[in-house]
From TrEMBL, chain A:
Transmembrane spans: none
NCBIfam families: accessory_GlmL, glmL_fam
Lineage of the species this protein comes from: unclassified sequences, metagenomes, ecological metagenomes
Pfam assignment, any one: MutL
Descriptive protein name: MutL protein
InterPro entries named in the record: ATPase_NBD, MutL
SUPFAM superfamilies: Actin-like ATPase domain
TrEMBL record, chain B:
InterPro entries named in the record: Acid_CoA_mut_C (IPR006159), Cobalamin-bd (IPR006158), Cobalamin-bd_sf (IPR036724), GlmS (IPR006394)
Record's keyword annotation contains Cytoplasm: no
Name of protein: Glutamate mutase sigma subunit
GO biological process, one term: anaerobic L-glutamate catabolic process
GO molecular function term, any single one: metal ion binding
Keyword Ubl conjugation: no
Native source species: bioreactor metagenome
EC number assigned by the record: 5.4.99.1
Top EC class of this enzyme: isomerase
Transmembrane intervals: none
Amino acid sequence: MNNVLLIDFGSTYTKITAVDIDSETILGTARGITTVTTDIMDGLNQALEELFQKTGKLEFCKVLGCSSAAGGLKMVAVGLVPELTAEAAKRAALGAGAKILGVFGNELSEYEIEEITNLQPDIILLAGGTDGGNKEVILHNAKLLKDLGRDVPFVVAGNKSVTPTVVKILSETMSEVRHTENVMPKLNELNILPARETIREVFLKKIVEAKGLNRANNFVNKMVMPTPAAVLTAAELLSTGGPHEPGLGDLMVVDIGGATTDVYSIAKGEPTKTNVAVRGLPEPFAKRTVEGDLGMRYSAGALLKAAGAKLIAEYAEVSEDEVADYADRVSGDIEYLPQNELEEKVEGAMGRACTSVSADRHVGQLETVYTLFGSAFVQVGKDLTAVKTVVGTGGVIINNLKPEEILKGIMFEQSAPHILKPQEPEYFIDSDYILASMGLLGGEYPDLAVRIMKKYIMRRE
Amino acid sequence: MENKVKVILGVIGADCHAVGNKILNHAITAAGFEVANLGVLVPQEEFVNAAIETNAKAILVASLYGHGEIDCRGLRERCRETGIGDILLYVGGNLVVGKTDFAEVEKKFIDMGYDKVYAPGTLPDQVINDLKNDLVKRGLMSE
């Protein structure tokens, strides 16, 4: 038997998936409670016990892990112009699966250095200047950052002309300083993959150890990446396919949690209409955005502010007061689950609002410009109107009785035609919660991972 | 490659005349500059951001649809505000509507802080020559 075990060390649960790679089936999934304060092996053993109860005792030829435990990978991104290298640095960090604590641009001040110290990032990504472009700002920032007072791993991905100097300055006080290609080598040319890979390497080398995840090393062959990076990898695979297994083409993934909503899109997002000029920073083919104010529990209050109680009340067909009451209750008691029909309606409507607002922010926008020759359009961001496949994952969507209702928030709205959301989406649910696992499996067996995803991630009408 | 002088090129405002922009891009690149071409429909802010990030020595603004005066006003101030107040600013095209005396137009744009103002029909070679001369004068380029 050729069994592979895939582990996702989360902040509350350790989720495991056992796959038989010969028959290409999922043998079972299980979860245990993560206890970062004690030993992460506890949660894993608990999950294994549960799994073996279902499947009988299994032997594994390979064990792969990803992690979002202990708050995940927390990062600060620093660049020069907020819309250019600072934004590029942010996207590189998001693509690496990080949680962004802050994005800083221009010459840093002592106050900002203090702020960065207080944010306690796991890694700092330092960019600034195109290759051969501005040198002064990244040098200035390196000189200030070296006196953070904490030993923080750095990834330097700025103007290559001064990279050696920047590394030298930071290395005076920091023990781990890696450098890689510029996140923006030329103006408006996005190059985030090298930085993304370097961040993941640092994560594996330093962070896994710092967070006590290495205690699982005897059991796990390879701790591969942060969980969101595994989900991004899986989404990319499902879209583009493996070497011999075709994918589903352009797609989006929505993952709603208690605190945040993640949206992924795998698509070029080029204009679908004529007479459209594309502006702004080029978009990554595999793009991830995270909304810290859209969530079902910790962020329920913020969600109400962002989406408006009115919208949620309309979705649920209840009064605004009832929405506010429920949001109050669940943000106070994060373990709370809907107890009656009304609460179920509001819960679903909140999910739909998370989807809708996070998608609004993820997709591109079209602006009409009136010229002497009639109207023209300017597109900023990705045009995802033609995307058909929309996958829902994460506990909130999977455990809901009508997950497709939550995903409906992704749909293009006639009342806001400038927001380029999918016009004819088809909804798929990751009901066995295998996306992150398949991202891990895909590193070794891409075709197999694609086939399993196509088999287990089901379409909902 | 990185030793080439960088310049920012684009058509400002709500103007989408793309042909001249492509010709200028081609000619200035061929003359040995590294051109960051922002294309058409470019807001002032983007010219400035691009110049900061690339450490460009000049911003070359085109406007052909007659609203140049409104679109171009304030660019020098914006540069000063963001720390690149000394950058060379050139502008050219059909800057105003109708048959206005060009000397008048030129004065207006010089007063707005532009270093060079070009009349309709100017050839790229003249712009390139001026650019080289200005950069040599400032010690930003060797002869």
